[in-house]
Design a protein that fits this description.
The chain contains 15 helices and 14 strands. The protein is of the alpha+beta class and about 375 residues long. The chain is globular, with a radius of gyration of 22 Å.
Length: about 375
């Protein structure tokens, strides 16, 4: 047992020293954290995976299930208006199937940088370097870009409800054709059960319609469902009502199907995206320029860009991430979950209480999964 603890301390010291060399200050948030931020960002679904308790005043708390939210909360409280970079290493606590519920995590978070593409590349390059320092010198690198997919959905004017279904299918790992098919999935029983409410919303001014739905929920005694407020639920009803009048057409489906099938290394993927956007008459130039700039910064930092497998259909938590995303896997242990992962999440700090948007990008390494990593 002492040998295992000593090995883990050595890993902590290795990654903290590596990240410290790049100017990342060590963050050590408390193990006991308020539960509300985790529930607000991840919904009630996370409740069954975290270890809950109460503090002396009866407020719901949990053992730290990950580091990003605690580090972000501390940054907001202490340095919300300033750029800052943090590194961490220590135990976290979360229910996991087939893996220990207490495990070691290390990582970095960068807040407030205006040079987004350079920051993205730095985070990914340092994560690759940290994994190599701990024994994984030839990881399989996966990459996606939420900004590209979101930009495409915006320009195609995909209704909000259909957009959510497609993104949910992407997160679930569905194929491109399955994700496109999800655009037209109906929730027959749900629609039938709420047909009267949806009918009542047709043609209403959005502000009046939102107030109407919130009143209905209030009368029913519903204040929140799955971490969503009455206002959030009202927005979903409004989106469903709007979708009835604006179905997704075949041309839009075809474009989305082609986009989700794009893969290859970042240079090949960029060329395919540009070809598709030109063919469809859609302006994705600024987003693709940023994509290419990030690729250049990755190459400059020594990452083998040709070894990165980009997929437009690769996704992590899309309610959380707003830009590029990535994962590292051990090719010798394909049965395991990611060794590391991260990406850009510009909307999170404002949702946690920051007075305005804060640029944010970070990554975590699961140190227990690095045990015996291939060299």
């Amino acid at each position: 047992m002492d040998d295992v603890a000593a090995e883990m301390r050595s890993k902590f010291e290795t990654v903290i020293a590596l990240f410290g060399r790049e100017g990342y200050a060590r963050a050590e948030p408390a193990i006991l954290q308020p539960a509300e931020p985790f529930l607000d960002l991840s919904g009630e679904d996370i409740r069954r995976r975290i270890f809950l308790t109460q503090d002396g005043e009866g407020r719901e708390c949990c053992l730290r299930p990950e580091y990003t939210i605690p580090v972000a909360l501390a940054h907001i409280a202490e340095r919300a208006g300033e750029p800052a970079s943090y590194a961490y290493a220590g135990p976290v606590f979360r229910m996991r199937v087939g893996e220990p519920n207490e495990f070691a995590q290390a990582g970095i978070e960068s807040f407030g940088r205006s040079d987004a593409t350079a920051a993205d590349a730095e985070i990914m390059a340092l994560t690759v370097e940290a994994a190599a320092a701990l024994g994984l010198t030839g990881p399989r690198l996966l990459m996606g870009d939420v900004a590209l997919l979101s930009g495409l959905l915006d320009r195609l004017a995909v209704p909000a409800a259909a957009r959510r279904r497609l993104l949910r299918a992407v997160v679930q790992g569905k194929t491109a054709s399955e994700a496109v098919a999800a655009l037209s999935e109906t929730t027959g029983e749900v629609d039938h059960a709420h047909a009267g409410l949806l009918k009542a919303l047709e043609g209403q001014d959005p502000t009046a319609a939102r107030a109407f739905v919130e009143d209905v929920l209030s009368i029913a005694g519903i204040s929140s469902v799955g971490g969503r407020s009455a206002g959030d639920i009202a927005e979903r009803f409004l989106a469903r009502a709007a979708e009835r009048d604006n179905p997704v057409n075949d041309e839009v489906r075809a474009v989305l199907g082609k986009a989700l099938a794009i893969g290859g290394d970042p240079d090949a993927a960029s060329a395919a995206w540009r070809s598709l956007s030109d063919e469809a008459g859609l302006d994705l130039g600024a987003t693709l320029d940023a994509f290419d700039e990030r690729t250049g910064f990755l190459a400059a930092r020594g990452v083998d860009v040709g070894a990165i497998a980009f997929s437009a259909a690769f996704a992590r938590n899309l309610d959380y991430y707003t830009g590029f995303i990535f994962e590292l896997h051990d090719p010798a242990r394909p049965d395991l979950k990611p060794i590391a992962g991260g990406g850009r999440y510009d909307g999170v700090l404002q949702r946690l209480g920051a007075p305005g948007p804060v640029a944010a990008v970070g990554a975590s390494l699961w140190l227990d999964r690095l045990a015996g990593a291939s060299a």
